[in-house]
Specification:
The protein is mainly β. The chain has no helices and 4 strands. A hairpin with a 4-residue loop joins strand 2 and strand 3.
């Protein structure tokens, strides 16, 4: 949220949950869960733009 409301919205990053969330500088880091393979995948979100890299969800 920004001063004038919603600043950005990121794409879907996880099938079912997050862990190990942390903020460093202007980025959010963490791991996103997928039940396919019962595994966790790292991701990063730029908190200024909402641009994301990684995660466990690669759907539409």
């Amino acid at each position: 949220m920004g001063a004038s409301g919603l600043a950005w919205k990121t794409r879907r990053l996880s099938w079912d949950g997050f862990r190990e969330l942390r903020v460093a500088g202007s980025s959010l880091f963490g791991e996103a869960y997928t039940p396919m393979g019962d595994s966790w995948h790292e991701f990063e979100v730029d908190l200024e733009t909402g641009e994301a890299v990684g995660g466990s969800y690669n759907g539409p």
